[in-house]
Amino acid sequence: MSKIELLVGDIAPHFPTLEFIKGQPISAFESGRIYVLECWAPWCRPCIDAIPHISKLQKKYPKISFIGVAVWEANINDVHQVVSDMGDQMDYRVAYNTIEVNEKEGDVPRNWLRPAGEEGIPTAFIIEQTGKIAWFGHPNEIDTVLEKLINNEFDIVEAAQVYCEYLEKNLIRERKDLYRVLDRLQSDNDIHSAIKVCEEAFIENIRLEQFMGIEKLNLLIRSNKCVEALSYSKHLIENIEQNDIISFENVGSSIVNTVYQNTEIEEWFSLLNYAIGILIDLDQLTVSSDNYYLKFRITRSLALALLAIQQPQEALEYVELGLEYAIKSGFPKDNQDLYTDLISLCKKQISIDQVKIENDTKVICDSSGCRLK
């Protein structure tokens, strides 16, 4: 099993090799100061979406040094372009993680992201006043820790203990190991072996299926195992606790998102209908919820599924509802535009269906009246 080498409570790695693009350059972590090292890239849409929130935090906590570090980016001009386009919306230090000759990536992925077990971005690291890692994760979830640090209410020893318990309880190491194997097999297009690896891992650790069952389901769908995918979907649903709405939504939405491009295969309709049933139940259960992001995901998946089974009128109702949720949840305008595009797609399909109905009718109506064909 691979080791997650950088943990909460550890001394932060050496200050990375950076070329600053915006703000006063920094070359080392000073004792007594708090730093936020936020990893992003110009091509990463979630990273761009997180920029206004980071700017808001920098304004709220001027004594904290926020540094947006562009990683996995070979072209520094693309970084400059984003900084220019964002203007005051990106109101904190921005730097480029220099990639040395004969290296594929900079020292931030090598010394920070990978040792922490973080394979994706955006990822933010908080370095507290004594130079230790206080927290790392998605920058949109950073607020509480920063407030505790500023108010001297943060206990680094307790945070380290809580993080280790989190790793064990949620099988983080085991999941990351399995993800690495699955990524390698899928890159080789060896889906059959990937399914087998999942099954063997679940036998070895039955709790792992709770977290990784969705991966096996997606693999079954990708390998066109329609009957097995439906059966396994039901197995996953039966083993979810009744109040775990997030897990129910994950199964329903995963089915829709993976199947959406395969609707020409008639066998998929039974699986899509099963997912629609799950999502409709969730839509009713969350009517009074103020978790608009969850409601957005549910309605979006319902709309895609209904479009796939040629029910554009019903899909349109969910798309329009989903757009309301997207606005209420504070989604960036680009994401809202995707929803308006989906509305147009629904209306186009409705128009096509209406033409088909009119062409199939046995009555012809014009200015002179109506008559049988």
TrEMBL record:
Classification via Pfam families: Thioredoxin
CDD domains to which the protein is assigned, alphabetical: TlpA_like_family
Origin organism lineage: Bacteria, Pseudomonadati, Pseudomonadota, Gammaproteobacteria, Moraxellales
Organism listed in the record: Acinetobacter bereziniae (Acinetobacter genomosp. 10)
InterPro entries: Thioredoxin-like_sf, Thioredoxin_domain, Thioredoxin_ResA/DsbE_sf
Protein name (Swiss-Prot/TrEMBL): Thiol-disulfide oxidoreductase ResA
Gene3D superfamilies linked to this entry: Glutaredoxin
Coiled-coil portions: none
Thioredoxin domain ranges (all copies): 6-155
